[in-house]
Specification:
Number of strands: 11
Largest sheet: 7 strands, mixed
Order of helices and strands: EHEHEHEHEHEHEHEHEHHEE
CATH topology of the largest domain: Rossmann fold
Shape: elongated
Distance between the termini: 9 Å
CATH architecture of the largest domain: 3-Layer(aba) Sandwich
Bound molecules: 6-O-phosphono-beta-D-fructofuranose
Strand content: 15-25%
Number of helices: 10
Length: 313
């Protein structure tokens, strides 16, 4: 049996623990695509052990590298990916929604795939939890804890920008944990008059205030400028939390979850399903075995279907 693994999209804390556990279970039989679907399309595939996953198991990032590679979704790119994937009995894919779509498309074309939701954004539709989210939230909270004392010393207002792409889950979780003063997780949340009133009140009481802003809604500098016009007496600072959300070492719980995801994936390798996804629902890990797209995405798969070829190896 020959297994192939890849990590795609934004790397997520926990990925390396999964890679290490896969390596340990499938020693001598597991290979990795360098840099996700890019490696699959370009046949940049070597043994997983060559990436020394044991050296990275407690680290964030991805030992086998990741990429965003739209060429995978072209006819030419997809055909090359299929050709290379056919040399393996199973392809394990760690990534977000786009990667799951890729896993389904490959499975529709005869490749057995196993998917592990892995993105700090926690926006994978089929799972309530995706790898990396807890660590990203924890990193944001630690960051805020280290910044607020200095804000307090000057009664300042601080805007903290979190990642999340188009999803407000990191922002809202951080807001709840840190009990911040205002949350902007969607464009409709922006009400400068309302926010300014909160900021002014706290400043008047000799207190600092904190606002959590999800990225990709408004430029943080514009936000500060607009808010500043409504409360000119308060000093407003901006902190983009940035890549430490992805680069922070996985938390203990994250590592435990990684073990569960890996366990599910290892079992799924031996199942008959065309595409299996290891998901977290109702506080437990389970495996969805399907070739069909799960709700709510019902888009037709555009990739050409090809007959499954006889494997030579
Ligand atoms: O999807 C993970 C994520 O970190 C998003 O939160 C963010 O918008 C994006 O990736 C940043 O991507 P990159 O740094 O790879 O360009």
């Amino acid at each position: 049996m020959k297994i192939l693994v890849l990590t795609s999209g934004g790397d997520a804390p926990g990925m390396n623990m999964v890679l290490y556990l896969l390596q340990r279970r499938f020693i001598g039989r597991i290979y990795a695509c360098r840099a996700g679907f890019k490696g699959l399309v370009n046949n940049d595939i070597i043994t997983l052990s060559a990436f020394k996953p044991h050296r990275h198991m407690f680290e964030a990032g991805s030992a086998i590298k990741s990429s965003r590679y739209p060429q995978f979704n072209t006819k030419e790119g997809f055909e090359k990916a299929l050709e290379n994937a056919r040399r393996f009995d199973c392809l394990i894919i760690l990534g977000g929604n786009g990667s799951y779509k890729g896993a389904l498309q490959l499975a529709e074309n005869g490749i057995k795939t196993v998917f592990i939701p892995s993105t700090i954004d926690n926006d994978v539709e089929i799972s309530e939890y995706s790898q990396g989210f807890l660590t990203a939230v924890s990193a944001c909270c630690d960051y805020i804890d280290s910044v607020m004392p200095t804000m307090e010393a000057f009664d300042r207002c601080c805007i903290f920008e979190t990642m999340g792409r188009k999803c407000g889950k990191i922002a809202s979780e951080v807001f709840n944990i840190k009990k911040s003063d205002y949350l902007v997780q969607e464009e409709t949340d922006i009400d400068y008059d309302k926010i300014a009133e909160i900021v002014r009140k706290k400043n008047g009481r000799g207190e600092a205030s904190s606002i959590i802003l999800r990225e990709n809604i408004v430029k943080i500098d514009d936000f500060i400028k607009n808010l500043g016009e409504k409360c000119p007496k308060v000093e407003i600072k901006g902190c983009v939390i940035g890549y430490l959300q992805r680069g922070t070492k996985p938390t203990k719980v994250e590592l435990d979850y990684a073990k569960q995801f890996a366990k599910g994936a290892i079992n799924a390798v031996f199942s008959d399903a065309g595409c299996s996804a290891i998901v977290y629902r109702n506080k437990k890990f389970e495996t969805i075995e399907s070739l069909k797209r799960e709700q709510p995405s019902k888009k037709k798969i555009l990739m050409p279907k090809r007959k499954k070829e006889k494997k030579n190896n």
